[in-house]
Amino acid sequence: MQIPLSYNLRNLIVRRTATMMTALSMALTVAVLLAALALVDGLRSAFRSSGDPLNLLVLRKGSSSELGSAMSEETFRNMSFKDGIARDGENPMVSLEMITAVTLPKPESANGQAVTLRGLLPVGIRLRAVSLKEGRWFRAGQRELVVGRAVARRCPAAHVGEWVPIGTSQWQVVGIMDAGASAINSEIFADLNQASSYFNRRDQYNSVLLRASDARSLSQLIESLNNDQRLNVTAQTEKSYYDSQSASGAPLEHLGVLVALIMSIGSAFAAMNTMYAAVARRSREIGTLRVLGFSRASILLSFLIESLLLASLGGVIGCLLVLPLNYVTTAVGNFSTMTETAFRFHVGPVVVGIGILFSWLMGGAGGLFPARNAARKQILTALREN
């Protein structure tokens, strides 16, 4: 015979002060863990949203990021004639690109904000899912910039019509682009020839972005580029490249998990103390339950369920505490490009599920020993205790 669940719910309500204090302790622990997971999941979501499935990013062999790659104009011309490349009319959809880290002024930071400036050809814009939110695209040969939506939000100087200092020169912001949730929102676009000339990077480019004509020719094009000894390049899908960049959030994830684990020990002890106190106060109840025919196993299970209900309440409160983070935008440094990538926290179903599961683990760890202690009480001893 099992003890009804209503018995556990009633006891939690009767001891509502202790219940809420323990639940809040667990909720704070869950909230710390979920905040770290939401941050990393938001960063990963930004990179997952970047790139087109048919786009290939070509880097120098041995390079792990665009900033560490080098590409010559001759290499670019040689790969432009490969079979399987999509065409826009008579022209292949291939963009030679140069990237560098620049610093934009930011009122609340003396050092400014480090962002990625990408010099690219007009076809490079068409290869990306970006649209103009305000203003126009840059003109060839002009020191003009189109900034991502996240850059414009975080840097007041980066608005249409404003001049921003880059190096020793002033560049005019002529447009603001919107790339949805992708990492492109944290970049600045400029004319390739103007940017390479200004930064003295003639024939010292970084990467090539190209599009395969269809999914069937994608793998053949990757193999052709990687096996061509003249080029000495590594080709990968643009999606794969951005997935690898999400590793910059790993240290934050590990730190958040470590802090949450340390806090979980305290929360588990809080649950344990609450349940031990409940067992001590309810000795006569336990004895009465045994007299009524409830087995030791049913009493152990009942007290363990009560601890899990307490943990579930803490988990739900913890999830509710972090839900507003979905509307918070932040930025972390990308160790590959040495610039900041802006993104939103993402508290999704997976993150919430992890939070509830984590609270159950704390509740189970905190409730097991008190539940076993309750189940092992002798009937006469339990009835005599106050």
Structure description:
The chain has 386 residues and is α+β, with helices and mostly antiparallel strands. It folds into two domains: 5-48 and 248-384, no CATH class; 62-231, no CATH class. It has 13 helices and 14 strands. The chain has helices spanning 5-14, 16-48, 73-79, 122-126, 149-154, 192-198, 215-227, 238-245, 250-281, 283-291, 296-322, 349-375, 379-384, and strands at 55-60, 87-88, 91-92, 94-106, 109-120, 131-135, 144-148, 163-166, 169-178, 187-191, 207-211, 233-237, 329-334, 339-344. The strands form three sheets. Strands 1, 4, 5, 6, 7, 8, 9, 10, 11 and 12 form a ten-stranded mixed sheet that branches. A hairpin with a 2-residue loop joins strand 4 (94-106) and strand 5. The chain is elongated, with a radius of gyration of 30 Å. The mean pLDDT is 82.
Q: How many E-type strands?
A: 14
As residue ranges, the low-confidence spans are none
Work out the count of structural domains.
2
Summarize the main sheet: 10 strands, mixed
Query: Overall mean pLDDT score?
Result: 82
- The rounded Rg comes to 30 Å
| Helical stretch tally | 13
Residue share in helix: 40-55%
Write a compact overview of the structure shown:
The protein has helices at residues 5-14, 16-48, 73-79, 122-126, 149-154, 192-198, 215-227, 238-245, 250-281, 283-291, 296-322, 349-375, 379-384; strands at 55-60, 87-88, 91-92, 94-106, 109-120, 131-135, 144-148, 163-166, 169-178, 187-191, 207-211, 233-237, 329-334, 339-344.
Topology (elements, then pairings):
Blueprint: H1 5-14, H2 16-48, E1 55-60, H3 73-79, E2 87-88, E3 91-92, E4 94-106, E5 109-120, H4 122-126, E6 131-135, E7 144-148, H5 149-154, E8 163-166, E9 169-178, E10 187-191, H6 192-198, E11 207-211, H7 215-227, E12 233-237, H8 238-245, H9 250-281, H10 283-291, H11 296-322, E13 329-334, E14 339-344, H12 349-375, H13 379-384
Parallel strand pairs: 5-10, 7-9
Antiparallel strand pairs: 1-11, 1-12, 2-3, 4-5, 4-11, 6-9, 7-10, 8-9, 13-14
Helix pairs in contact: 1-2, 1-11, 2-9, 2-11, 2-12, 9-12, 11-12
